[in-house]
């Protein structure tokens, strides 16, 4: 029971979906059915992302340009550079496909929901977090495919610049359509957040099942050993630790407030599973998607556990400081 409290429930569902695809992969006519269903699910996912994006929240937090600039640099420059540097450290024989998956997670945009939630728990600048995370998610639709073509092409991966148009069409068009529909459906979306969240998760699960079904038929579990998985876990921990340390250093070095530091830490160190899995389904060959998203799924759980602990630590320190200040006033 203690493990269930530590591990994100959605991550457990993802693991179950991978197991289902491993033992009962989609075959025959079901492959075409799931491909069509997956395409529709991705469109719905990004339509809802667009509908949820609050223009007012973005505008209200948009004045902190230095904060937003660093969050973008952390997400789209620091992470990819570290990902490339990790190619020099291979203590075990990691397959090129699995390393490409690790590099792929480094070029993804930040999460939206969890970054904002952790910022709120820790007492950070929530308005700035909404603006930064939303901007990162939107820019990621443009920048991540470009980085795949630039960085992963150099590393021998299958992503290339000609796929940018495809991802714009399949992700950006539904996103823009959803945002344009916000004046009419925004209130309904806000009222049904729980249902929308379930829709997002179901869309991701469909993509994961479809991707791993194809990967299993191409022998993914014969290519990934325990040593390779351990390498991804350790690399993810090191990567996250370095990024968080750099973000804290930058926030303090350049005189950001404690609330802004918290926002920088949580918005500048997260990677989006919700964007990454659908994007991989478009950018890479179907048979390669399972290997590409495996490191992302591992990193997703690690970042949730680490950031949850950090958010509680920030919260405790703020409460202790408040009590100390109140005691000083009384005396």
Your description of this structure?
With 331 residues, the protein is mostly helical. Residues 154-160 have low confidence and may be disordered. It is built from 16 helices and no strands. It has one domain (2-21, 28-316): Na+/H+ antiporter like fold (Up-down Bundle), CATH 1.20.1530. It has helices at 2-6, 9-23, 29-52, 55-61, 65-85, 96-106, 113-122, 126-154, 164-180, 182-191, 193-217, 220-223, 226-253, 258-267, 273-283, 286-330.
Number of domains: 1
**Poorly predicted runs:** 154-160
Strand-residue fraction?
under 5%
Tally of helical runs: 16
Tell me briefly what this model is.
It is built from 16 helices and no strands.
Describe the secondary structure blueprint for this structure.
Layout: H1 2-6, H2 9-23, H3 29-52, H4 55-61, H5 65-85, H6 96-106, H7 113-122, H8 126-154, H9 164-180, H10 182-191, H11 193-217, H12 220-223, H13 226-253, H14 258-267, H15 273-283, H16 286-330
Helix pairs in contact: 2-11, 3-9, 3-10, 3-11, 4-8, 5-6, 5-8, 5-13, 5-14, 6-16, 7-8, 7-14, 7-16, 8-9, 8-14, 11-15, 11-16, 13-14, 13-16, 15-16
């Amino acid at each position: 029971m203690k493990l269930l409290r530590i591990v994100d429930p959605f991550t457990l569902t993802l693991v179950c979906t991978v197991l289902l695809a491993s033992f009962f992969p989609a075959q025959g006519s079901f492959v075409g059915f799931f491909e069509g269903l997956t395409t529709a699910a991705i469109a719905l996912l990004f339509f809802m992302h667009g509908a949820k994006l609050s223009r007012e929240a973005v505008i209200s937090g948009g004045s902190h340009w230095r904060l937003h600039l660093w969050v973008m640099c952390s997400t789209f420059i620091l992470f990819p550079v570290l990902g490339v540097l990790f190619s020099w450290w291979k203590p075990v024989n990691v397959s090129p496909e699995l390393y490409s998956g690790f590099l792929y997670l480094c070029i993804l945009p930040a999460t939206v929901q969890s970054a904002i939630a952790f910022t709120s728990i820790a007492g950070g600048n929530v308005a700035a977090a909404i603006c930064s995370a939303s901007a990162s998610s939107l820019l990621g639709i443009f920048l991540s495919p470009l980085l795949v073509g630039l960085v992963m092409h150099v590393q021998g991966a299958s992503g290339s610049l000609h796929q940018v148009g495809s991802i714009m069409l399949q992700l950006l068009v539904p996103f823009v359509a959803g945002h344009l529909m916000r004046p009419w459906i925004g209130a309904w979306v806000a009222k049904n957040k729980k249902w929308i969240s379930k829709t997002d998760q179901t869309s991701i699960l469909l993509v994961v099942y479809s991707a791993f079904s194809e990967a299993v038929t191409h022998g993914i579990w014969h290519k990934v050993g325990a040593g390779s998985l351990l390498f991804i876990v350790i690399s993810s921990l090191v990567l996250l630790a370095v990024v968080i340390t750099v973000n804290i250093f930058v926030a303090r070095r350049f005189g950001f407030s404690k609330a802004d530091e918290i926002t920088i830490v949580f918005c500048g160190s997260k990677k989006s599973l919700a964007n990454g899995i659908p994007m991989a389904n478009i950018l890479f060959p179907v048979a390669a998607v399972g290997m590409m998203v495996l490191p992302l799924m591992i990193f997703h759980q690690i970042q949730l556990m680490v950031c949850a602990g950090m958010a509680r630590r920030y919260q405790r320190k703020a409460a202790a400081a408040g009590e100390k200040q109140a005691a000083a006033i009384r005396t």
